[in-house]
Write a structure and sequence with these properties.
By secondary structure, the protein is α/β, with parallel strands linked by helices. About 25% of the residues lie in helices and about 20% in strands.
């Protein structure tokens, strides 16, 4: 059995939300290793950014907000975002002495003795009075299921496995998904591929007006209402629409972003609609998003009948010891920063009200 070690707070995940939370713990007097610990299953600093495809340069990243206490300056817009943000997160962890432990896999969080939570990992087991879950979504790509999918003779891959546009040279590619990743993939792949086809469940919504602070608040409020009701969160971008920038305009003008409705089934040679339309394909690229990584919380039975975890602010309604940051409305980089601060504030209040058991 793993050794059991006691701390006041365990932070699971060292992406934007986890590092923000660790920073605010440190800033308010918590000492790493003594009072809190940050566990990260990734091999290196950088959160999910370290796994992004090389062609996603830093200049193409939308809305990357700096971590609290340290700006990201002088970044080369032509450098891969994985390198820029990985180096930034590494510098951040060292500057604030956050002592992230990696690679550590968290297998389960369950009720422990004395009102503590037991966090079971691939190394130690931690007994904690509060837990900040900042596991994001990258490790749970969503793959829709369609009739005939197993018969397709070509290649199927998800955004999480996207290797960059050169891998699609001379191939017929169907891109599925109406979000930012889908449009980015299409615009990159089109110059290399023999043909591209874009299919989405709903027509894309293009946003011409600037995405100002009021629009941001409205979008976050819509996502927040879902998690307050215990429904699975939607991404913020799902309610904001897609920005109609110069690259998108060119894609619309040259036909790369001509969208087709979702196909009904998949055949050995491509995708098929019930009206008889067919599109031959060598590759189906599923740009269909991700789901929150929360299965390790299953022993605590936090899920509501609607499938999500009811959250007020960052606190799980069913268990005030659990805070979810980077979940639902705080899934953006600026939202993650604010959520980390809010979670630490609530946890300090909780620990002050409930003295540690002897």
């Amino acid at each position: 059995m793993n050794d059991v070690r006691e701390v006041e707070v365990v932070v699971v995940g060292a992406g934007q939300a986890g590092l923000s939370s660790a920073y605010h713990l440190r800033r308010t007097g918590f000492e790493p290793d003594r009072d809190f610990v940050v566990l990260d299953h990734s091999p290196a600093p950088g959160g999910a950014w370290q796994f992004r495809w090389p062609s996603l340069t830093y200049g193409k990243v939308h809305g990357m907000h700096a971590l609290p206490g340290m700006e990201l300056t002088d970044a080369d817009p032509l450098a891969p975002s994985s390198e820029v943000i990985g180096a930034y997160f590494d510098r951040y962890e060292r500057t604030f002495d956050l002592r992230v432990r990696r690679p550590v896999d968290v297998h389960a969080v369950r009720e422990g003795p004395g009102g503590r939570l037991l966090v079971e990992t691939s190394h130690d087991t931690w007994a904690t009075r509060a837990l900040i879950n900042a596991t994001g979504t990258w490790d749970r790509p969503f793959w829709p299921r369609y009739p005939g999918q197993e018969t397709f003779r070509g290649r199927q891959l998800h955004t999480a496995q996207y290797p960059g546009p050169e891998a699609f040279a001379g191939l017929r590619v169907v891109v599925v998904g109406g979000g930012a990743s889908g449009t980015q993939h299409l615009l990159e792949i089109a110059p290399y591929a023999a043909a591209t086809t874009w299919v989405t469940r709903r027509p894309p919504v293009w946003r011409e007006e600037p995405f100002d602070e009021n629009a941001g608040r409205e979008a976050v409020a819509l996502v927040e209402e879902r998690v307050r009701q215990g429904l699975p969160p939607r991404s913020v971008v799902s309610v904001t629409g897609l920005p109609l920038n110069d690259a998108i305009r060119r894609g619309l003008e040259d036909g790369v972003l001509d969208r087709l409705p979702m196909f009904d089934r998949i055949g050995p040679e491509g995708v098929v609609w019930d009206d008889g339309r067919r599109v031959a394909a060598d590759v189906i690229l599923w740009a269909t998003g991700f789901r929150p990584v929360i299965d390790h919380l299953a022993p605590l039975r936090l899920r509501e009948p609607g499938g999500g975890i009811r959250v007020e602010g960052t606190r799980a309604v069913a268990d005030p010891r659990i805070h979810l940051v980077g979940y639902g409305p705080s899934a953006s980089t600026i939202g993650a920063n604010r959520a980390g601060r809010a979670a630490v504030r609530d946890i300090r209040r909780l620990l002050a009200e409930e003295p540690a058991a002897a």
